[in-house]
Design brief:
Domain RNA polymerase sigma factor 70 region 4 type (chain A): 126-174
Number of helices of chain B: 9
Number of helices of chain A: 10
Largest sheet of chain A: none
Protein name (chain A): DNA-directed RNA polymerase sigma-70 factor
GO molecular function, one term (chain A): sigma factor activity
Structural class of chain A: mainly alpha
Shape of chain A: elongated
Helix content of chain A: 55-70%
Largest sheet of chain B: 19 strands, mixed
Number of domains of chain B: 3
Oligomer: heterodimer
Family (chain A): Belongs to the sigma-70 factor family. ECF subfamily.
CATH topology of the largest domain in chain B: Jelly Rolls
Number of domains of chain A: 1
Largest interface: A-B, 63 and 65 residues
Distance between the termini of chain A: 19 Å
GO cellular component, one term (chain A): DNA-directed RNA polymerase complex
Number of strands of chain B: 24
Strand content of chain A: under 5%
Radius of gyration of chain B: 25 Å
Strand content of chain B: 25-35%
Distance between the termini of chain B: 61 Å
Structural class of chain B: alpha+beta
């Protein structure tokens, strides 16, 4: 399911480029759940996914001048999310600690007839690669699943500044709330409901 | 016929959809590490994010925008280096399953060679009763107070809640040619090398957890800040703060060595204190006051044994032979002068003694082996 763009996205983007946090808060709240769900497909760990998603928005905010040439915020956002997720996965694959964080949240499917659906060629490729693995890889793999590791270490490894945006956004929303209520005389929730018509995120 | 990139795509898809089995996961991470899945991942992600329909930019995106996150960061190399250390050192535990059986069970009767060590130990309970532990599939269960212990298939596991009153101690002893793994009641895992004894309480009550060692073991200590963990050897004390490390402390070795892989430990010999960071090694020589800190320790060599290898680098013959005595349950006599020479070699711990003897041949050392008396004599 692809979300529709915010109805006044062009204007909002211009405001973000100018550094208006409240405008960025719109994007953030509107798109955050979709980005988070997207990232979690690949990172599995809910916490890791959440923090990486925050990181995606932080980066976009930090590089907001680039948004001037962006046609579709959504597409830009997901390119950044995609690149971040691939980078994170690569790092993870090289690091036992981080792989453990993923594996602990990976719910293995129950053994089922599903495997019968896999073609013999698929199984052959799988088997060939498996046979080529050094034994130590497999040991680590097993260890990863068993060992609880500090999440903060993993986050640090992936260069994730935890909850940076969250705090930032809380701040931004406060500013927005105050100005909306002061200037328009309506509660923020009402304003948002009107403002981001079509969004289900509020 | 399925082409490779289709295989990659299918693998990525199954991973994302949580359909991958543990074998597929293993392959997934392996291929990922090798960078072989990048294209498949990107393709799948584009589809999942609906990125096919509209480019994010009015014109061709400038490369700087699209690619900055792909640039390899130095971090990756550091991470890779750290991973290597962990790979080499950290994965001890589960591997040991493989040593549970003698390499060549059928050859036991015909002893042209000497077989390597096996999983086995002797456990002495609080009341003085003795249990033989081996690799047999049968399981022994004993209850001591609130704690029960389970022994079978080469592992000993304690389970139970701490109880009031005095600590009950058990002693696990491996003889030469044996090793054994054990999980203490707090979840700490220990792999005891040959000729090692470990004394520990059945359940940890009180303010600290203390395990006494004489010998060589790998520790993966369960974190519990409120109940610090200590490993004691005579007056040498290692204070552990949630960590995995190797401790070599035999009576017949000149040096006691603590090699830290993850976490933090502090080594105290009563006269000096030394804090270790991962990758470092503390050496306390017998009779010496101080502790030597080796900042870039040879982690691979120090911890190879837990991965089933004996690795020696720049080692003297006496050190190598003491290790051989312990693992192959032999006596070694060195005739002639081999001191002052240093050796590099590695053998699998699952290999029979002949593999190690082969190393001697490479170094032009002559030897005589008597498999009945289990005596090896080295000649110059």
């Amino acid at each position: 399911m692809i979300q529709a763009a915010l109805h006044n996205e062009k204007e909002l983007l211009a405001q973000v480029v100018e550094g208006k946090e409240e405008a960025f808060a719109m994007f953030y709240h509107y798109y955050y759940p979709a980005v988070s769900a997207f990232v979690q497909q690949f990172l599995k760990s809910p916490q890791l996914s959440e923090d990486l998603s925050q990181e995606v928005f932080t980066r976009i905010w930090q590089n907001r001048h680039r948004l001037a040439e962006v046609q579709s915020f959504r597409a830009y956002l997901f390119v950044v999310a995609r690149n971040q997720a691939i980078t994170a996965l690569r790092t993870i694959s090289r690091h036992e600690l981080a792989a453990g964080e993923i594996l602990r949240h990976y719910h293995l499917p129950p053994p089922s007839t599903d495997d019968l659906l896999l073609t013999q060629e698929y199984m052959r490729f799988l088997r060939n690669t498996l046979d080529s693995l050094p034994e130590r890889t497999r040991q680590i793999f097993r260890l990863c699943r068993e060992e609880g590791r500090s999440y903060d270490e993993v986050a640090a490894l992936l260069g994730i500044s935890r909850n940076a945006v969250k705090n930032h956004m809380v701040q931004a929303m406060k500013v927005l709330k105050t100005s909306v209520e002061k200037e328009l005389g309506i509660p923020l929730s009402v304003f948002l409901a009107v403002f981001s018509a079509g969004s289900e995120n509020f | 016929m399925l082409e490779q990139h289709h295989f990659y795509q299918q693998l990525v898809k199954r991973y994302a959809a949580n359909q991958a089995t543990s074998e597929e996961l293993e392959v997934f991470f392996h291929l990922l590490e090798q960078g072989k899945l990048d294209a498949a991942l990107e393709m799948y992600m584009n589809e999942a994010a609906g990125l096919t329909e509209a480019p994010p930019y009015a014109e061709e995106p400038s490369e700087a925008v699209i690619t900055p996150l792909y640039t390899k960061r130095k971090l990756l190399y550091r991470v890779a280096a750290a991973a290597v250390i962990l790979i080499l050192a950290g994965s001890a535990w589960w591997f040991m399953n493989r040593i549970n059986e003698p390499a060549h069970p059928g050859e036991l009767a015909v002893q042209q060679d000497i077989l390597p060590g096996v999983s086995g130990a002797t456990l002495t309970l609080e009341d003085g009763s003795v249990m033989q532990l081996d690799t047999a599939a049968r399981t022994l269960q004993v209850t001591q107070g609130e704690t029960s212990l389970l022994a079978g298939k080469g592992t000993l596991t304690y389970r139970g809640a701490p109880e009031a009153g005095n600590l009950r101690y058990n002693v696990l002893t491996t003889h030469k040619g044996e090793q054994y793994r054990i999980t203490l009641s707090d979840g700490t895992k220990i792999l005891a090398d040959a000729a090692t004894s470990l004394r520990f309480p059945v359940a940890f009550t009180g303010r600290e957890r203390v395990v006494e060692i004489n010998g060589h073991a790998w520790f993966e200590v369960a974190e519990n800040a409120r109940q610090p963990f200590y490993v004691k050897k005579g007056n040498q004390l290692v204070q552990v703060l949630g960590t995995s490390f190797d401790m070599l402390a035999y009576d017949n070795e000149k040096n006691m060595a603590v090699t830290l892989v993850t976490g933090r430990v502090q080594v105290n010999n009563g006269k000096a204190v030394c804090r270790l960071a991962p990758g470092q090694q503390a050496i306390a020589a017998k009779g010496a006051e101080g502790i030597t800190l080796i900042k870039e320790a040879d982690i691979e060599a120090a911890t190879a044994w837990i991965n089933g290898k004996m690795v020696f680098r720049n080692a003297d013959i006496a050190t190598i032979m003491r290790a051989a005595e312990r693992w192959y349950n032999i006596e070694v006599e060195v005739q002639g002068n081999l001191t002052g020479r240093s050796f590099y070699f590695a053998v699998n711990r699952t290999a029979p003694l002949s593999e190690l003897l082969h190393f001697l041949e490479i170094y032009h050392i002559k030897y005589k082996l008597d498999t009945v008396t289990r005596k090896l004599i080295l000649m110059q």
